[in-house]
Every structure is written in C-alpha cells, then in structure tokens.
C-alpha cells in the first residue's frame, strides 16, 4: 500500500517529544487494546492517536518506551490460539514502519522499564481521563489507567509527567505528510458527496441508510480506510438533531437531508457537511440555506494566523444573530437567543481525530487545520441546514481544502 508516511516521520516525532522532556525521564506510551463487543467478539480496533503519531503502528497492546538514546517496543507473547484467530505480530513490518528495531517480550521489556523508572523515579506518559465523562455520557478506554497503575507498582514513589499538552501542540500544527493525507481524505469525501448527490442516487434513496451505504461504498471504492466517524444522514426532522447517526429514517421529496461525513486516510479525518434535497428548495428553505452560507462566508474571513478562537466564535454568533433576525426567528442577538437555533461551535481542530487536539486558548498558527461549520436548526419547522468545510490556516490567511465540494449539491437551487 502506498503511504504518505515514512519511518522518519515517526522517528522525528519521537525525537521532538524526547527533547521536550528531561533526558533522564523515560517516556512510556501505550497502544490501545481490543474492546469486548460480545462474548469473545471485539469491536473494530481503533488505535490511540498519540501512539500512532509516535509509531505509525495499528497493532494492539504494544507499549512504546523512549529512553535516553534509544526507543524500544514491548509486545505481549500471543498464544497459538490467538495467533490462529487474530494473526501474529509481524515484527519485521513493525520495525520497518516505525523505525524501531528493538522489540522485546513483556518479561524482558518490563524488567528494563523497572530499572529505568527506579533509577529516575519519574516517568512521562499520557495521563488517563476519568473513567466516565459525564458531559458526553462516555466510558473511556482503560489502557492508560492500567499502564500508570503498573508503573506505580514498579515504583510507588514514581512522579508522573503528563505529555498530552506537548503532543497536542505538536499535532495541532500539521507537517507536509499530514496535510497530504488530510487532503486525500477530503478529496475522497468530496468525490463521494458529489456522486451521492447525483439525481439518480438521491431520488432513488427512500431511506437514510441507502445514502449511508452509497457513502460507505464511495469511501472504500476510492481507497479510504472507511469512515473517520459515524456518518450522519439526517432527513426531515432528523436534520435538526446534530449527531443523528441511526440513519434509519425515511426520506421524502420535501425533506432536507444533512450529510455530515468524512473519509479516513491513514488515520487522518475529513469532515464535510452538505445539505441536499430531492426537489428544489422551498422559499423558506432557500432563505435559511442562504443565511447559513452568509455566516460561513463571514466566518472564513476571520480564520487567519493570530486569531483567537473565543473572539472568532463570539463574532460568528453575532453574525448569526443578524441572520436569525432576518429570518424572523429571534428578536435579539443575545448569546442565548442565537444558541436556540445555532447550538454548537463553528470550528474545531481536525487531524488524526475528527475533533482533534489543539489549544483553544492560543492564537491560530499556520498549518493548523480546522472545520468551519455554521448551521441553523428549526425543529418546529423541520428545517436543519449545516454547511461544513475543512480549512488550512496559511501564513497570510486560510485555504479551504474542501473547496472542490460545491456548496449546492443535489437539487438545491
């Protein structure tokens, strides 16, 4: 398979992280493992993004150790049964991909780790989030917690340094290889959206899942790994639910259909939204569509180096308030009034994760990539319209990486 990344990319990422931490402190990062879906069946494996950024590996249960002067991997010894069912580790491929030549079994590897941490009494790793994120109603993976607990058993006095912010700052500014992968993911998504919005496909789809199936085929047919996130195909009232992912509703000729999708290419995510309809828009729908487009046009003028996300988001809310007043939806542009019909942020960072890491308190800088996605949702009218593009911050302003995807797809007039 052709790849945008060489072993040097991952080695350089490790070296940058190593240089940002005291040289006597070992850096230890764990891969994700397999999560149970049912009985002995796992969910599809998804690698920890920080581990991938440092190794390029999509293998479960590995541990990366970056010590002074060298790096090595620890791999579990698989039983013959597991190798038969799941396949064995390909150590030659792992070394070639990551640039790490030393791969140790668990007993040997952890003996070396024990010596390292007991000599320094410090370790740098990615701290674990809480086991449950109440805001999002999400249970978090246990792998980092388990790693830290194991390290503290080796040295109860161990001091742990969290490197997540260091990795977030590094990952937020994209390197050329990353931009190439992102652009390919965006191109695949664009080509698929254009294909799916063709009249023969759009008019023949009686249900949301039929469009989802066409999108899935389009991504895989064009060489992507699949979806970067659960695709959103929301028709009619479902278009007013921001993260409608069941995709099981019917599509009528009057419905607006929000398509919020993104292909994954070498772990890098596109994220583009277009709103389509089988028939030309009604006058009301057209007015709402034009309002969303006007807000996006304005938002794009603000995305540039030095911009602060808080100020940017506040300015977009004010612009949206003006548009909502023109539509007769609000009488005032206060934050609470606007958020009734525009309840989400305009932009988020994009990269290895769809909602990628980045510091929202720091000014934007060249080679950061963000989305720009205003939307208006009117549940009482069954109208939901969102337009989302992927934007590269340049030295002088920005470049819309998804510019090849027409805003007006399908029968939008």
Describe the structure.
The chain is α+β, with helices and mostly antiparallel strands. It has two domains: 164 residues, Creatine Amidinohydrolase, Chain A, domain 1 (3-Layer(aba) Sandwich); 228 residues, Creatine Amidinohydrolase (Alpha-Beta Complex). 38% of the residues lie in helices and 19% in strands. The protein contains 13 helices and 21 strands. The strands form eight sheets. It has a four-stranded mixed sheet, sandwiched between helices. Strand 14 and strand 15 form a beta hairpin. Helix 1 packs across helix 2 and helix 11 packs antiparallel against helix 12. The protein is globular. The relative contact order is 0.11. The model has no long low-confidence stretch (mean pLDDT 96).
Helix and strand arrangement:
Blueprint: H1 7-19, E1 27-30, E2 36-38, E3 41-42, H2 49-55, E4 63-67, E5 70-75, H3 80-86, H4 91-98, E6 103-105, H5 106-120, E7 122-125, E8 132-133, E9 138-139, H6 143-154, E10 159-162, H7 164-172, H8 176-196, H9 199-204, H10 208-221, E11 226-227, E12 232-235, E13 256-261, E14 263-265, E15 268-269, E16 272-277, H11 283-302, H12 309-326, H13 335-339, E17 369-372, E18 375-378, E19 383-386, E20 389-393, E21 398-400
Parallel strand pairs: 5-6, 7-10
Antiparallel strand pairs: 1-4, 2-3, 4-5, 8-9, 11-14, 12-13, 13-16, 14-15, 17-20, 18-19, 20-21
Helix pairs in contact: 1-2, 8-10, 11-12
What attributes does this structure have?
single chain; 413 residues; alpha+beta; Creatine Amidinohydrolase, Chain A, domain 1; Creatine Amidinohydrolase; 2 domains; 4-stranded mixed beta sheet; 3-stranded antiparallel beta sheet; 38% helix
């Amino acid at each position: 398979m052709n790849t945008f990344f060489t072993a040097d990319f991952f080695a350089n990422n490790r070296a940058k992280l190593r240089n940002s931490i005291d040289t006597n402190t070992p850096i230890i990062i764990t891969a994700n493992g397999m999560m149970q879906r049912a009985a002995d069946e796992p969910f599809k494996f998804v690698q920890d993004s920080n581990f991938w950024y440092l190794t390029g590996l999509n293998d479960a249960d590995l541990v990366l150790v970056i010590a002074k002067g060298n790096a090595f991997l620890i791999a579990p010894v698989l039983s013959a049964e597991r190798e038969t069912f799941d396949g064995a580790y390909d150590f030659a491929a792992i070394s070639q991909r990551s640039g790490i030549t030393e791969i140790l079994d668990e007993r040997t590897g952890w003996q070396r780790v024990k010596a390292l941490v007991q000599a320094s009494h410090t370790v740098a790793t990615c701290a674990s989030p809480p086991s449950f994120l109440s805001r999002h109603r999400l249970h978090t993976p246990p792998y980092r917690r388990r790693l830290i607990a194991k390290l503290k058993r080796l040295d109860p006095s161990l001091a742990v340094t969290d490197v997540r912010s260091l990795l977030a700052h590094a990952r937020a500014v994209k390197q050329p290889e990353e931009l190439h992968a992102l652009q390919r993911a965006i191109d695949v998504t664009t080509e698929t959206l254009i294909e799916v919005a063709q009249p023969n496909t759009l008019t023949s789809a009686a249900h949301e899942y039929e469009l989802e199936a066409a999108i899935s085929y389009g991504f895989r047919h064009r060489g992507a790994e699949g979806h970067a996130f659960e695709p959103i195909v929301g028709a009619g009232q479902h278009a007013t639910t921001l993260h409608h992912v069941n995709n099981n509703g019917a599509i009528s000729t009057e419905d607006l259909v929000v398509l919020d999708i993104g292909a994954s290419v070498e772990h890098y995510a596109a994220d583009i939204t277009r709103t389509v309809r089988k028939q030309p828009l009604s006058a009301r729908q057209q007015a709402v569509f034009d309002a969303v487009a006007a807000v996006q046009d304005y938002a794009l003028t603000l995305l540039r180096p030095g911009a602060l996300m808080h100020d940017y988001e506040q300015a977009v809310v004010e612009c949206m308030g003006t548009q909502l007043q023109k539509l007769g939806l609000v009488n005032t542009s206060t934050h609470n009034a606007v958020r009734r019909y525009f309840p989400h942020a305009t932009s988020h960072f994009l990269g290895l994760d769809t909602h990628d890491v980045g510091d929202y308190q720091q000014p934007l800088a060249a080679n950061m990539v963000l989305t720009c996605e205003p939307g208006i949702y009117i549940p009482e009218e069954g109208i939901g319209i969102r337009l989302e593009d992927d934007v590269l911050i340049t030295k002088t302003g920005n470049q819309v990486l998804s510019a090849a995807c027409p805003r007006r797809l399908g029968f939008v007039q």
